[in-house]
């Protein structure tokens, strides 16, 4: 599993009911089912991933977060996960609203566009930056709404979503030490993780 997924596992209580939106290869679902005894299932846009995960025996359906979440029942899950997908959806605000309608908790991870290396690349080169997290040129990436940790906190404040827990991490597995200060974590954290409640 990716680092952000390992951190997500730590936020989920065993034996919970979990929906993983944009579940990709299903590695998070598989881990939660096998090691956390969770009732975990997924929704994925890319049909090739859906085919592979279903072939592994994982409960995944093809769907689009922007349109299909409205069909899920209110309070149907304990946790709804959106890992490295928020920046790729068309309507991030609405997707968050649906996540918190469907589940008691929402867990979101995303590449932090406020990281100092991205700021420096943009300043010095005048071009859209690339890192190990962002890994593609701007014209190849599915990311249409890149945001920073500060942007996300502001959205949560405006929408009334309660941030229960947050962290900033880098690809080497180090957590940013600025646990009390989002603005510092925004500068030094490559990836952001948030646990929200209504």
UniProtKB/TrEMBL annotation:
Protein name: Ubiquinone/menaquinone biosynthesis C-methylase UbiE/MenG (UbiE) (PDB:4OBW)
Top-level taxon of origin: Bacteria
Membrane listed as a keyword: no
Ranges in a coiled coil: none
InterPro entries noted in UniProt: Methionine_synth_MetW (IPR010743), SAM-dependent_MTases_sf (IPR029063)
Annotated keywords: Ubiquinone
Pfam families registered for this protein in UniProt: MetW
């Amino acid at each position: 599993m990716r680092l952000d997924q390992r951190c997500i596992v730590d936020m989920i209580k065993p034996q919970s009911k979990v929906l993983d939106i944009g579940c990709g290869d299903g590695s998070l679902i598989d881990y939660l089912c096998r090691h956390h005894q969770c009732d975990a299932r997924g929704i994925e846009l890319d049909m090739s991933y859906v085919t592979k995960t279903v072939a592994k025996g994982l409960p995944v359906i093809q769907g689009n977060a922007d349109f299909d979440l409205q069909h899920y029942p209110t309070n149907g899950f304990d946790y709804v996960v959106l890992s490295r997908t928020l920046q790729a959806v068309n309507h991030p605000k609405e997707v968050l609203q649906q996540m918190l309608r469907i589940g008691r908790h929402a867990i979101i991870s995303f590449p932090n566009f406020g990281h100092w290396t991205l700021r420096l690349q943009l300043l010095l080169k005048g071009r859209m930056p690339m890192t190990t997290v962002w890994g593609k040129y701007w014209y190849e990436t599915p990311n249409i709404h890149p945001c920073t940790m500060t942007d996300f906190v502001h959205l949560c404040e405006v929408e009334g979503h309660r941030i229960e827990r947050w962290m900033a991490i880098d690809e080497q597995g180090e957590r940013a030490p600025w646990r009390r200060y989002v603005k510092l974590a925004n500068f030094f954290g490559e990836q952001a993780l948030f646990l929200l409640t209504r």
